Amino acid sequence: MNVTESFLTALDSILANKMRAILTMLGVIIGVASVIALMSIGNGFSESITGEINAIGTNLINISTDTDNSGGYPALSLDDVEALSNPLNAPDITEVSAIVQGNQLVVFGGESMNTAVNGVTANYLAMNNLDDFQLGDGLNQNDLDTTARVAVIGAGAASDLFGTEFPIGQPIRINGVSYELIGVLADSGGGLAGNTDNSVFIPLTTAQSRLYSNRTRSGEKAVSAITAQAAGTEQVDAALKQITETLRDQHDIIYGDEDDFSIFDQASLLDTVNTITATLTTFLGAIAAISLIVGGIGIMNIMLVSVTERTREIGIRKAIGALRRDILAQFLLESLVLSLLGGAIGIALGWTISAVASALFDLPLVVDLGTIMLSATFAAVVGLIFGIYPAWRASSLRPIEALRYE
Known about the structure:
- Helices cover 55% and strands 16% of the residues.
- By secondary structure, it is α+β, with helices and mostly antiparallel strands.
- A six-stranded mixed beta barrel has the order 3-4-9-6-8-7.
- Helix 11 runs antiparallel to helix 12 (369-395).
- The protein is elongated, with a radius of gyration of 33 Å.
- The two termini are 26 Å apart.
- The relative contact order is 0.20.
């Protein structure tokens, strides 16, 4: 008997017991679909987060106070921003921005909301990829120099406070003081830095004089965080060193003492995120692959039942000249066909689940061809491995004993 005949015989046997074949394949279907769906969703999350980081810029460096070493005081001030902006101190830094943060009651007419009100430098929004406006414009350096009472708000805050009313030029009250609304940001939908759609941005100098009075140990008006932009991704390491040296000098930190500030760059964040998501995706895929093993055990169980049911058939075939390898090939092919059919259905199901999840969670659809090939190969290997014993048992039956089997 050739391979084609063995395959057709195996297919006839499967079609003769359709429901049993479907139930047998179920484990493989679930296993393959789970591997593809989980790997796709994991890769989608990874690509989405990576895209957000890249959109902000992998050459951005974030500086904040290290509360463990600052004695409970904020460590950063506008003097630090000026020092880092000086090319003599940090030649590999092209731009520096700062922010002071807190929550305040914001009121317009009869509407009010308690939300984040951030005092920022004029270049902060552009540096953090928040310079897309649906109405009006952003802050400028003159607003900071004159401590102007002007504000830019997110799309969500504009909707909650103004409804359908045109917001530009309208007065909003922050902590009881009136501010002119000059810009409304486009809908950002949230991101790594949180949802800015409900945030309000005012000049940093205005926020320091009217809302946030925190000071550093030396008495300077404090800022919550500083963002520095390196000249390029290749200059990030040099920029990190220059920031450290400049701030240690600014804060009079002597040799051997710990920094009262923390530095974190986006490139390191990107590497960390990629490592974590890759590990989690692989882990989820490995867990899903366990169901393939369970599916293989189900195939072996059904194949053993099939051998028992067809003992007399095996005896007749051997009696009329079928060789041991023919019987072995037939049952192995039957097991393999069950696995491959289950794998094919699982691939289609996994792809469908991935597409639905991508639409629901607003993720890129990332179905890797390598994952599909690996799942299909694993399903075939499972079918072969778990089909070997039933096939060997069938091929080992003695014709006389098989013919007498009832």
